[in-house]
Specification:
333 residues, 34% helix, 29% strand, globular
């Protein structure tokens, strides 16, 4: 007998929800979008009509009161993640919350605790890691294809600096490039190395034009064994999102490490013994894959690969990066 699809409620009409997450859910065979909520009911109704969502609510409370909703997706501004994730957990809803999970590791820990107490699953929305190429990359590293890993280099930058009304440029709302895109290279290094960092050092450009948030940051994240991630992130620079894993015998290069919108954009390259080959990866919608993994975990078919505990660990590194950038010093974790 075919299982019924999990019903999702979308909390807010953020661009990431409309542009990526909702279309990804529409492609899923395990999930469906049942409702969307906004503090502006007209905005909710407009989005619902545009994206074929059956129910529109004029408040987040109404969404959480809907007993038919199994999972809540939270793409709200960063400073609202903690409150609404906890309220969703208390309402008995499973939660997929946009990155960064919270403003601090302590907030993330509160969210994890609330989910555990309520018996619901909580996951941070790093969609890139559900793309099958990351399993391939990890297997190549673990097999010794590139020898011993000596370092990881990554970046995630874009230029949106002209839109000063954007929520990314509100300091009290959790604005800034480390929160918005720097968390990706940090997360990827932790994923690929299977370890937690020992220390971080970060330099950042804080812009008075943008409420003094970090518009550009460059960092060194130290792991055991003298292996480091060197990264940069920014919201006032040309777009790019590469990742490179350097080994003693070869290199893995991922030209578009976190964004895979087009056919072929998920491919990556391996260089070894003077030969460079392209690894072709079938096109996969990472947002669909992310939702499907959570659905299988909710149904008890598989353990949740990345739960609240992982998000807390990532936030500890983000906290340290922000502290280092403000204090201009090395922070030991």
């Amino acid at each position: 007998m075919t299982k019924s699809k999990l019903k999702w409620g979308i909390m807010g009409c953020a661009g990431i929800a409309k542009r990526a997450m909702i279309p990804g859910l529409h492609l899923s065979e395990l999930n469906e979008v049942a409702a969307i909520a906004s503090r502006n009911v007209d905005n909710a109704k407009k989005t619902a009509e545009e994206l074929d969502i059956p129910v529109a609510y004029g408040s987040y409370e109404e969404l959480l009161a809907d007993s038919s909703i199994d999972v809540v997706y939270i793409p709200l501004p960063n400073h609202l993640h903690r409150e609404w994730a906890i309220r969703a957990a208390e309402a008995g809803k499973h939660i997929l919350c946009e990155k960064p999970l919270a403003l601090t590791a302590s907030e993330a820990a509160e969210m994890e605790e609330a989910a555990a107490k309520a018996g619901v699953l909580l996951s941070e929305a790093f969609m890139y890691r559900y793309h099958p190429r990351y399993d391939l990359i990890k297997k190549l590293i673990d097999s010794g294809e590139i020898g011993e890993v000596r370092g990881i280099r990554s970046a995630f930058t874009f230029n949106n600096a002209g839109h000063k009304e954007n929520v990314r440029y509100r300091k009290e709302w959790g604005g800034g490039s480390i929160y918005d895109v720097g968390c990706y290279p940090i997360n990827a290094a932790r994923l690929l190395l299977g370890k937690e960092p020992e220390a971080v050092t970060v330099q950042a450009l804080f812009s008075p034009e943008h409420d003094h948030v970090d518009m550009m940051a460059s960092g060194l994240v130290e792991f055991e064994g003298a292996v480091s991630l060197t990264f940069d992130c920014g919201m006032w620079a040309a777009f790019r999102n590469p990742l490179e894993v350097l080994g003693t015998e070869g290199v893995i290069e991922v030209p578009s490490a976190f964004v895979t919108n087009e056919l072929g954009s998920g491919n990556f390259f391996v260089s070894n013994k003077g030969e460079r080959r392209e690894i072709e990866v079938p096109h996969v919608n990472a947002y669909t894959a992310q939702a499907d993994h959570l659905a299988r975990a909710i149904q008890g078919e598989t353990p949740l690969q990345f739960g609240g505990a992982d998000a807390v660990k990532n936030m500890k590194v983000v906290d340290a990066c922000l502290q280092s950038a403000h204090e201009r010093t090395r922070i030991v974790l």
